[in-house]
Amino acid sequence: MPSTRRPCRNCKIDYLPQRGEAGEPSALARQRAGGGNKLTVIAQLRGLERSFSNGIKALGPLDLDIEGGEFLSLLGPSGCGKSTALRIIAELLMPSAGGLAWPGGKPRIGFVFQDPTLMPWSDVRGNVRLPLDLKRVPRRESNSRAQAALARVGLSGFSDAYPRALSGGMRMRVAIARALVAKPQLLLMDEPFAALDEIGRDALNEDLLKLWREDSLTIVFVTHSVYEASFLSTRIVTLSPRPGRIVSEFRLSPPPGRTSEWRASREFVETARQVSLSLRTAVATAA
Ligand code: ADP
Ligand code: MG
């Protein structure tokens, strides 16, 4: 597999399991960029820092390129500034220093928070329709788009249900449908499955990969789970404890249709081991 490494002064490790397969989104991104090893950079984060008024420096400096079509996980210990970084990328929060550029123009962005944040007084269809209602999309169209988004997350039969009747996993599926209904190009996800039990989390991991492939999405996924990051990602960036800085970068080429069998494979276990080691070293060094 050709290496797609670019110089990264923060990287201590650049781990590339030799398991590339045609059709991987990182390969797709290269194709879109005209073949070869050229990747489409959709966002450039340069020297990003964020401090809060209480004197806490949460993040940075952080230099990172987000590549079109990748599944990028930001992995780091609690409190290291992952949510802060994601909110800056979403332009919900201003950096204290540094900046963010969109070389090809700002993409449509969807955001999935750790809490599904559904409106309890509205049914599932109304919750999913919300981004379209805010844009005053006609009700006929918004209802049919909401229904289609619900079908994609496996909730076709639940459009009339209210959030209180749903399990945690189903509520998160509604939140994902709500993000998808506006047809995002870049999906930002902040520990969306952290509150779910392992079986629910595994199922959502697999379904999310399907949605990512089908929509050629770029996903930036925040997690503190080594296993989740290792299962989902085409690239993992590990962050140090606060203020979060990049410690290492892992480029991965897992099989496109990975399912539960992949979790038991030697390659997966080895990836998780390497990532875990890097994270532990970062935490120990900072302590
Ligand atoms: P993570 O998502 O990695 O757990 P956060 O980005 O939420 O971390 O927070 C990083 C650090 O910044 C934490 O110590 C947190 O308490 C602090 N922090 C986050 N938001 C604020 C805020 N609005 N005001 C003050 N401190 C904050
Ligand atoms: Mg967080």
Overview of this structure, please?
This protein has helices spanning 25-32, 82-89, 124-134, 139-152, 168-180, 198-214, 226-232, 260-263, 266-286, and strands at residues 14-15, 41-51, 57-67, 71-75, 97-101, 109-112, 186-190, 218-223, 235-239, 246-251. It is an alpha/beta fold. It has 2 domains: 14-107 and 185-286, P-loop containing nucleotide triphosphate hydrolases (Rossmann fold), CATH 3.40.50.300; 118-184. Helix 3 (124-134) crosses helix 4, helix 3 (124-134) packs parallel to helix 5 (168-180) and helix 7 crosses helix 9 (266-286). The longest helix has 21 residues, at 266-286. Residues 1-36 have low confidence and may be disordered. It binds adenosine-5'-diphosphate and magnesium ion (MG).
Quaternary status of these chains? single chain
Strand content: 15-25%
Low-confidence stretches: 1-36
Ligand inventory reads: adenosine-5'-diphosphate, magnesium ion
Mean pLDDT: 87
Distance between the termini: 37 Å
What structural class is derived from the secondary structure elements?
alpha/beta
What is the helix fraction of residues, given as a range?
Answer: 25-40%
**Cα gyration radius (Å):** 19 Å
Question: Judging from the principal axes of the Cα atoms, what is the shape?
Answer: globular
Largest sheet: 7 strands, mixed
Number of separate domains: 2
Question: Which labels suit this protein?
Answer:
globular, 287 residues, seven-stranded mixed β-sheet, binds adenosine-5'-diphosphate
